[in-house]
Amino acid sequence: MKGDPQIIATLNSLLADELTAINQYMVHSEMCDNWNYGKLHKSIEKRAIVEMKHAEKLIGRILFLEGIPIVSDYRKVYIGADVPKMFENDRMAEVGAVKSYNAAVKQAGDLGDFATRDILQAILNDEDGHLDEIEGVQDQISQMGLQIFLSTRTEV
């Protein structure tokens, strides 16, 4: 089915966002693993895997619409030097994702591509959840203090 070129372009832009997020989250996950914060490593890695699934859905939809997935475009990756900076960088990535997916959902609906809109809405729901999770961690760090928070994220 030949898709609207505007939708395909938007899907490719979102794909670049997802591919960038995967890289950022995987680096943050591995840094936490290196610092022996096993619980943080696993939770960030889990988020990266969800982003991989988003990329897979976007690629599948682009192909269905007879477009060409562009997997070589990336945004700037923001690697945090410490745990609070990691979560702030990840929060900013999710804020951007929520904004982009909201606009894409509206665009797909305006162009009458409701199947794409539904796919994008499902991804948006995940991104909202990621943002809530990250902000929850930031609240825990603020309330407990960094040292106590990190002591609860190790695995012995």
From TrEMBL:
Heme b binds at residue 52. InterPro entries: Bacterioferritin, Ferritin-like, Ferritin-like_diiron, Ferritin-like_SF, Ferritin_DPS_dom. Fe cation 1 binds at residues 18, 51, 54, 127. The keyword Metal-binding applies. Keywords: Heme, Iron, Iron storage, Metal-binding. GO terms for molecular function: ferric iron binding; ferroxidase activity; heme binding. Transmembrane segments: none annotated. Its EC number is 1.16.3.1. Residues 1-145 form the Ferritin-like diiron domain. Fe cation 2 binds at residues 51, 94, 127, 130. It catalyses: 4 Fe(2+) + O2 + 4 H(+) = 4 Fe(3+) + 2 H2O. One of its GO terms (biological process) is iron ion transport. One of its GO terms (cellular component) is cytosol. Pfam families: Ferritin. The keyword Ubl conjugation does not apply. NCBIfam families: bfr. Iron-storage protein, whose ferroxidase center binds Fe(2+), oxidizes it using dioxygen to Fe(3+), and participates in the subsequent Fe(3+) oxide mineral core formation within the central cavity of the BFR protein shell. Belongs to the bacterioferritin family. This is Bacterioferritin. It comes from Dehalogenimonas alkenigignens.
